[in-house]
Specification:
Largest sheet: 10 strands, mixed
CATH class of the largest domain: Alpha Beta
Strand content: 15-25%
Radius of gyration: 22 Å
CATH topology of the largest domain: TIM Barrel
Helix content: 25-40%
Distance between the termini: 29 Å
Shape: elongated
Bound molecules: S-adenosyl-L-homocysteine, iron/sulfur cluster
Number of domains: 2
Number of helices: 14
Number of strands: 12
CATH superfamily of the largest domain: Aldolase class I
Length: 376
């Protein structure tokens, strides 16, 4: 290749990375674009259905579009959202993908099967995370960038069956619990929910979508008034400000009382139960007194029917926290129940493939190139 060709090709790649992804556009936005291209209105629905219903990943697949239109669209929009760098399957069926985006950023997506055949897909909303929780591998990385709505929904499409009816696509639930803080990338997160729910696309019920937040209180309150029916999960991880601030720096900005008030507003406005996530860290937040204190603060903030606690076994990272013993977790759950708080102990899934958020990327980058080739 000549120097000029190499420069042109590099320029082309850079321009390609700057273009919006085709999957970033809502139906209304596609309608505007196609009208500008002098196309009839039904074309927008056709293109949207190809992208979000039939899960096309390149323009050539859209066989019923005129070739000239496909070329015009290809010049304006990127169509492929992620290349699979690593694909790991755990003994329990949990499958974890490491995806490389157009600009080289890497993100993780996890598919978690249930015994009854349902599949939950756990999506990332950012490459890295700015919030730096002490126990979290993603927090250690810092924030590289926000993902676009198309990059978020395309993670779900990696696990979905194309060309199927919505109920036969194989993805029953989506949880925003991968890398990043969804409410720190608010606009793209909301847009991605609306794309997933669109009947011309996956047609997912918003009720089967859960957004997890570390407690960005103002954004939680904003979300309460969006008219969406998504479930909100709040990563609490501590019964008081002293412990919470020591493991989650964001607590100094939005302390526990403010987070709980925002959760109450979400529950009241949407009439949906809020889940509180609680990672069990040995010797930090897992004593019976912590459980009693947690029950007290939760019951003061919300009616018991509108709250639920999920106890999460900790997946150890390089940060040096220890997992709680099974006995401590059981005892913690018993104290919550005795104090009138509904609680579920989450099964630890995919432990053998480092399925906690941020872990695969960290481990893969540490591994040498031959290991990466073996994983891919
Ligand atoms: N940023 C959002 C969503 C992504 S993290 C949030 O914090 O809620 C999703 C969940 O995984 C959070 O509850 C988080 O605390 C938890 N988590 C992070 N690292 C973990 C680990 N090593 N083991 C178990 N859970 C972890
Ligand atoms: Fe970010 Fe959530 Fe990890 Fe905290 S737990 S660093 S908010 S991804």
């Amino acid at each position: 290749m000549t120097t000029l060709q190499a420069t042109l090709s590099e320029l082309h790649d850079r321009l390609a990375a700057d273009r919006p992804l085709a999957q970033d556009l809502t139906l209304a936005e596609l309608e505007v674009l196609l009208a500008e291209l002098g196309q009839p209105r039904y074309r927008a629905r056709q293109v949207f259905h190809w992208l979000h219903g039939r899960l096309a990943t390149c323009w050539e697949q859209m066989s019923d579009l005129p070739a000239a239109l496909r070329r015009e669209l290809a010049e304006r929009l990127g169509a492929v959202a992620g290349e699979v760098v690593a694909d790991q399957r755990a003994a329990d069926g949990t499958r974890k993908l490491l995806l490389r985006l157009r600009d080289g950023q890497q993100i993780e997506t996890v598919g978690i099967p249930a015994r009854d055949g349902r599949l939950t897909v756990c999506v990332s909303t950012q490459a890295g995370c700015a919030l730096g929780c002490g126990f979290c591998a993603t927090g250690e990385m810092g924030l590289a960038r926000n993902l676009s709505a198309g990059e978020i929904v395309s993670q779900v499409y990696q696990f979905a069956t194309p060309h199927a009816r919505p109920e036969e696509r194989g993805v029953s639930n989506v949880v925003y619990m991968g890398m990043g803080e969804p409410l720190h990338n608010y606009a793209a997160t909301l847009k991605s929910v609306r794309l997933l729910a669109d009947p011309l696309g996956m047609g997912m019920s918003e009720r089967r979508i859960t957004i997890s937040t570390s407690g960005l209180a103002p954004r939680m309150r904003q979300l309460a008034h969006e008219g969406l029916h998504v479930r909100l999960a709040v990563s609490l991880h501590a019964p008081n400000d002293a412990i919470r601030s020591s493991i989650m720096p964001i607590n100094r900005r939005y302390p526990l009382a403010e987070v709980l008030a925002a959760a109450r507003e979400y529950a009241a406005e949407t009439d949906r139960r809020v889940s509180f996530e609680y990672v069990m860290l040995g010797g930090v937040n897992d004593a019976p007194e912590h459980a009693a204190e947690l029950a007290r603060v939760l019951r003061t903030a919300l009616p018991p029917a509108l709250l639920h606690v999920n106890l999460i076994p900790y997946n150890p990272t390089a940060a040096g926290f220890a997992s709680s013993s099974a006995a401590s977790i059981r005892q913690f759950a018993d104290v919550l129940r005795a104090n009138g708080v509904r609680v579920t102990v989450r099964a630890s899934r995919g432990r053998d493939i480092a399925a906690a958020c941020g872990q695969l990327k960290t481990e893969t980058n540490r591994a040498n190139r031959s290991t990466i080739a073996a994983l891919g």
